[in-house]
Amino acid sequence: MKKIKYFVMAFAAVCLTMGLASCEKEKEVEKIVEVPVETEVEVVVEVPQDNNWSRYQKAVTDHVKANKKNKKVILLVAFGCTWEQGFNAFDTTIDAYKNAFAGYDVFLSYSSAICINRAAAGENGVSRNYYAPPFWLNAFAAEGVQYEEIVVQSLQVIPGEEYTRVINYIKDFANNANGDLDDAYLAGVTLKLGVPLLQDAEEDVKSVAKELDALYGDKAANAVVAFMGHGNPDEYDTYKANVRYTELETELQKYSKNYFVGTVDMMDNFKTNVYARMVAAGITSGKVYCTPLMSIDGDHGHNDMAGDDDDNWQEGVGFTPNEEGEVEDTSWKMYFHHLGYECDNSTMIEYGLLELPKIRQIWINHTQDAINGAPLEYYHSKNPEE
Length: 386
Hints:
36% of the residues lie in helices and 18% in strands. By secondary structure, the protein is an alpha/beta fold. Helix 4 runs parallel beside helix 5.
């Protein structure tokens, strides 16, 4: 059992006047109760150690202890996935990181509780444990582990809502938010943070556009290549990160006017908006290739992009957009197909960005930049200014 002490302080003398009325007593009785100034009361609460949280933490810590080979560690943080293709992409990424950073142990974490639970439960036939970032960080600081340097690398595409969560994990860890870590260790450990793929509006956007054109330029010469990113709803568009999709489309169109970048969740950049931009550019027919602009090709790629769902379509009526202008219950494939474009299973390019070696290398470059840079001043975030 773990004992936690609480101290309750009364900061002023308080006189309580209690009026006690009774149907049997017509006379009002007054009682004065005095509370001394700054009274300190110690309350001891015993917390059982054999609970779900402690068992979960022990599992992560034991795993790290069993696999610790170096004094430095890299934690890759992804939102998560439950598809075997995504698992394989993450495995390949871990291997690539181990090859690139020989002096570091490498682990991977999910930030999505839903994805963690579904992956552990064996959804889609494969059971995997992708623990949440705070448990990994606590394990890195555990007695018998205590890495000298911890590098957290965001596997997000844009510096938006999910990346902000990554930053907050690090801040909570560095500030010992739960008060259960060794303060002396935290004062000496070196923390580094690797930024998302499209962190920088200039260098990163240009680098990604160049590599994507090298991959898909032959298709864009004669057909539309539409990238489907995730995006954040307006209320979650942290630091206005959605602008990276617009910037990437602008940069890609320097190579070919047939490149378009839309999203699942970004206002005014749904597939309906991509279609409107295509029509405005005079592209009203022809072939449309679709590929996910996401770290892995998971549920969004297989369903929202390449799925067979077209429940919104009514013959003779067409589509009915929602109040935000998006056509729900219809995949990108079926949407463009019903609009008369050549868009079917043969034009779905189902590869996540981590499956593309030269795009993955940009994330690796961000990690190297973090390692080469100064230790993270965790009181300030590493978000873009624009």
